[in-house]
User: Which sequence fits this backbone?
């Protein structure tokens, strides 16, 4: 997968233009993850483990660095959870997160357990999503289909897949549909980039690290629009369409085990071929999303006068 | 793996369509998906009564389904970080 800098990632998502005027002032973001960075501050935190709040897994700290790089003035709160996390602890973490009234929550934890969204984690995310945008990583199970599991399958979650820094779909980005046939992810964003504040050379691949870019955009829109449903729809509808480039061998069923079953599955479920199961509505476009949100907000203000 | 597939008294029953036994004909997701879902199974230590979200044992879950206290039952599971191609569960 192509590597690059965080500036490359922010360039293709048109975030650099947004960052000229936006610092995240007034945004509240909660990171539910493996802990916080030693060299960054948080406004508050909760530790649901019996270890130090400091991240030793290079996961939560990286996500915090990404968010702090994009929105340096945002209020950041953190909840440390174990890895792997039992579903009831995750539900507790989500419950605790809402006490800070966040505009957006970053959840770079997921599973490949197929679900129709009626499992408790997904159902709880649906319930909380009326008050906050919850961005969830799609997972890294691609190119297999139906690798987006709970809680990324939640109807109201903003599920984020991954591209490289050139905007090409990452082959391992998990794919839909959900068990009940809904397409997922919602959008894609770049991953595998250098964060100079952390290391000059190392990059971190995975939908874990594309999700915080979406979280930042969601926080800005939620702060200004105060409506999670509209914020998510704006992010989806302003996304940039990207080509789906398959690298490697041409895809064929010749010689594939159980080819007849796979063929029958595709015939019974043609929605498997829906491109939205790979890239959602497309590549996140921060500049366009903020422009549309501003226009909606101004219309609302004018209408109230 | 199916989060609704419950093993009780040596038999697999559907947590979404209790008391019907897990089979391709009754699977709410259809025959083709049933075949994929039952390919592997995972054991749960606890079970969720839904939609109320109460965590109970298998026996309590079955009783709740029988009494109608629960509409459906889901197996409890763990989730992991979405990093470096590792999709733990």
Assistant:
């Amino acid at each position: 997968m192509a590597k690059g800098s965080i500036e490359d990632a922010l360039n293709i998502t048109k975030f650099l233009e947004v960052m000229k005027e936006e610092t995240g002032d007034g945004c509240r973001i909660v990171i539910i993850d493996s802990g916080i960075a030693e060299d960054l501050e948080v406004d508050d935190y909760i530790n649901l483990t019996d270890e130090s709040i400091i991240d030793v897994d290079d996961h939560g700290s990286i996500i915090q660095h990404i968010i702090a790089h994009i929105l340096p003035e945002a209020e950041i709160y953190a909840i440390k959870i174990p890895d792997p996390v039992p579903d009831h602890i995750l539900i507790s973490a989500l419950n605790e997160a809402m006490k800070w009234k966040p505009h957006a929550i970053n959840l770079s934890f997921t599973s490949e357990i197929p679900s129709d969204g009626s499992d408790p984690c997904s159902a709880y995310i649906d319930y909380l999503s009326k008050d906050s945008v919850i961005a969830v990583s799609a997972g890294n199970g691609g190119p297999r289909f139906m690798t987006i599991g709970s809680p990324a399958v939640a109807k109201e979650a903003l599920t984020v897949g991954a591209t490289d820094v050139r905007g090409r779909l990452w082959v391992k980005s998990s794919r839909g549909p959900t068990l009940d046939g809904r397409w997922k992810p919602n959008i894609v964003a770049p991953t595998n980039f250098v964060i100079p504040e952390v290391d000059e050379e190392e990059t971190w691949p995975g939908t874990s690290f594309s999700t915080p870019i979406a979280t930042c955009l969601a926080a800005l829109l939620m702060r200004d629009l105060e409506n999670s449903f509209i914020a998510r729809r704006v992010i989806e509808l302003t996304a940039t369409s990207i080509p789906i480039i398959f690298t490697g061998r041409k895809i064929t069923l010749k010689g594939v085990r159980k080819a007849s079953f796979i063929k029958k599955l595709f015939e019974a479920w043609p929605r498997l071929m829906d491109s939205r199961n790979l890239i959602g509505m497309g590549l996140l476009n921060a500049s366009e999303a903020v422009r549309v949100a501003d226009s909606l907000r101004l219309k609302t203000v004018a209408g109230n006068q | 793996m199916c989060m609704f597939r419950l093993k009780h008294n040596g038999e697999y029953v559907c947590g979404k369509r209790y008391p019907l036994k897990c089979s391709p004909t009754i699977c709410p997701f259809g025959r083709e998906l049933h075949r994929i879902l039952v390919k592997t199974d995972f054991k749960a230590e606890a079970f969720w009564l839904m939609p109320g979200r109460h965590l109970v044992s298998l026996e309590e879950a079955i009783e709740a389904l029988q009494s109608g206290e629960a509409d459906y039952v889901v197996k409890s599971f763990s989730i992991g970080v979405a990093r470096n191609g590792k999709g733990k569960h």
Strands of chain B lie at 5-8, 11-14, 47-50, 54-56, 72-75, 78-83, 86-87. Residues 5-75 of chain B form one domain.
